[in-house]
Amino acid sequence: MTAHGFAVENFKLPAVDTVITSSDLSELQNTEIRGAMDLVPGVTYTQSQQAGLSFISIRGISQNRNTTSPVVTRLDGVNEIDPEQFNQATYDIDKIQVIKGPEGALYGSDAVAGAILIDTKNPTNYFTGYARVGEGDFGQRTAAFGVGGPILNDALQFRLAGQYTSNDGFFRNVTLQQNENPQERSAARLKLRWLPAENLTLDLSSSYERTLGTANFFHYTPAILTPNGFLAPGVAPFDFSNIDANQVSRTFYNNNLGGDDYSLHQDSLKVTYDGLSFARLEWTGAYDDLSELTLADEFPYTASTTRNTIIGPVDGTQTQYFSIRAWTGEVRLTSKLNAVPRLHWLFGLYYSYVDRFISSTTGTDNGLGIIPLFLVPQFNSPANPTGSFLADDNHNYTKSVLGNIGYDLPLGFSIDLADRWDKVDKNQFVSIFNTAGVPGAINRGTFQRQSPRATLQWLPTEGMPLYGHLSLYATYGEGFRAGGFNQNGVGAAAAAIGLSGVGDRIEEEIARTAELGFKSRWLGDRLEVDGDVYRIRDTNQPFFVFVGAVGAQILINIDQARMYGGDLGVRGQAFSDPTWGSLSLYASGNYNKNYITQYRLNPADVGNNLPQAPVFLWQAGFAYQRHLFDNNVVGPVSLFTRWDFSGRRREAWDADNSSFQKGYTTLDLHFGFKGERVSLMASILNLTDEKYNEEFVEGGFTEPALPRSAMVTLIMNFGE
What we know:
- The structure is a single chain.
- 3% of the residues lie in helices and 57% in strands.
- By secondary structure, it is mostly beta strands.
- The chain is globular, with a radius of gyration of 26 Å.
- The model has no long low-confidence stretch (mean pLDDT 91).
């Protein structure tokens, strides 16, 4: 584990963590990050609406549209600068580390709930590679490869990898007589490692991916529909009592399929100098270029074209366009092991500049399709005239100083102190074409704060392996998520639906976490038992509200909230025998009592559960493998099966607690023949075909989760 800046055994890291290896990912045969997140105890992950949109919630601290994530994600040592990057293709992965708790001291603003560190496979001096192809129902197809080795021995190495996935769509659109959500994704990455001199390494990485599909697979549950999917006649075709997070439909009636075009280009250079006697010096610089355009039918997502109702025009069109460019740089000086006995430390500086443009529109649906809109509205278009246009260009600067120092005390005790100062300057330039607020307005804000963390650890069995391995730790940490701005003019839109007091500025979130935990290893490390309890005082958590009439995506701060809970996980090997094979089992659970303690916008919500914060999460499963035979061509081959169960209970989706998700349990099954050189594996996701909503938005907007799906995959490994 390198999550806290120093390489240590997983057992000795004083934090709740999950390590997902390349072997785990190979067993799952999943090409998206959600397959990995499903293995992390106490984490909920929602993939909704479009290719680049996903939400993470940890311990009641959640992510919403137009907010940054409460978890910092680093890909090969580079901080991702926008949540739209997180749901990128998952391929050629070496390891994923997920750390829960206050991690802002090392990873900066936004790491209020944790950090996710993703490492792809590096070039080596040995020629290795793999190829993978797969096919499944719903038109699922996948192909991936990774190959690398020396160009010049001990001097220049490469790693080239890529992935292609596609499907024909998992839901049916009755109105258009075609599938609702087809998708095609292509991705590739080239990594070069140059060793020009002793103790000097340069790592260059460049990647690109593009996803084409559709967006906004929502239902509006209050809408009253005719049998063929049209909005019922009359000026009031709505039943506003019909708002239920557990109402699930996999059939769609919208008359515009829309589109989604997502692209991401990333370049990074890492320079490592290991020639100092006391420390290792690392500098990393990166450039990111991300864009996404979505076109979709507007609520209530029916077969009808635009018409007037008691709540105004409905059944129009909507578009949203993101264009994000960022430059980041970081330098870290990290002490070497035993350079000073018992002492370890690191010091670093970080900088980023992000240029983020966003435009959100609504339009009149004349039955002639949707016009793509970027920087300028089309109010006079005869086919699809623009109704509302909200756009702004944001220039954001972050400067950070970080440090960490730890010391090993006698009797197995150690203390670790870390802190980071972040200053985030945000500048919003409102489009002159804005149809709300003040066109051409300029908003500026500065968010700065320290993120201290202190940890005391005790290893009472250090040096006594016959008694097992036990680690006890106590941590207190603070972190903050920088605030920002709503799109100009949404305050007036919020007031129109009764949300008075909504402003342009979103305040910074501050989370203060105290945690006690233990890690233990028994029976010759065949049994692992880990647990923790925590208390979080959270201030200004951002919460999302949608006003469909103008496509307004509004962020509101929940003034104060509290979370109390804990995690417990057990993992072990039941048996390992040459005749009977091996069986490993795991189970984990997270209990999170969370509630709002202060909410000026709506005091009636005090005492309610936080949005997107399930009270109980659990996971359990087992993997069985039995050797079958050896072969000179394919190598040793084993029979393999893996069963993964997961569930969540009592999840609110909004601060009003207007509707709780009653909870659900899913089962993923993986089985087949696993070989050293060749494997043939099958996967069935959501085996029981559990019907539940992937997301519920206040007011009655629901998106169904994916149905049961199956895929068969052939994997071939080669190399030295």
